[in-house]
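sorry for the late reply, my laptop died twice this morning and i had to redo everyting from scratch. anyway the thing you sent over, i finally got around to it. pasting the sequence first so we're on the same page, its 207 residues, then the predicted structure underneath. double check i copied it right bc i was rushing
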Amino acid sequence: MAQLFEQSKKVIEAQLAGTGLRAVSGSMIAYEGNIQFKAAGFGGGDGVLAGLKRRATGEKLSLMECSGQGRVFFAVDGQHVTVVDLNNETLQVESQQLLAFAGNLRTDVRFAGVRGASTGQGLFTTTVSGHGQVALLSAGGPLIHLAVTPQYPLVVDPDAFVAARGDLSHSFVTDVSWRSVVGQGGGEAFSLRWEGRGVVSIQPAER
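ok and here's the structure:
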């Protein structure tokens, strides 16, 4: 399969040897060799059901497929990049922070819950499952990986959430106090609480 490397803090290098990968449309910044590019539709899986999910959730993860022999370089708006290896695992990722993925992987859309009864605003994440590599983006600096254990649940700002994997469950909790302190107390405020055992990755900037 194609191999992904962190060529620098903000650039992903993909090495293709007659293989292919999928990446966010418009993220290619350079390539060398015999590489073909074509549209790969949208994330969220295939078929009619996936189309209905995307329409319902507003997912707009436009992908391109890169295949051939050579090297391709990817970046988006100077954001930091991280390569995550999956070994028959499922990674939940905020779609805006997904850059590229290679290997025997499939994507889907997962409903993560409703942020608040009065707002009715839902949170949807893209899931990437299988064996391979995933390149993630983070704004404001490198990803921060936080361990979650049964003894220590983790609460994060949904706008800072990037990805999660492991035996984890999540829920929304009302937590107005901390937003009020930093001057963001207008309207309802909700945090994302993770419990179980796994790793949650956040970025040091809000969307």
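Confidence is low (pLDDT under 50) at residues 115-122.
thats about all i looked at so far, will dig more tmrw
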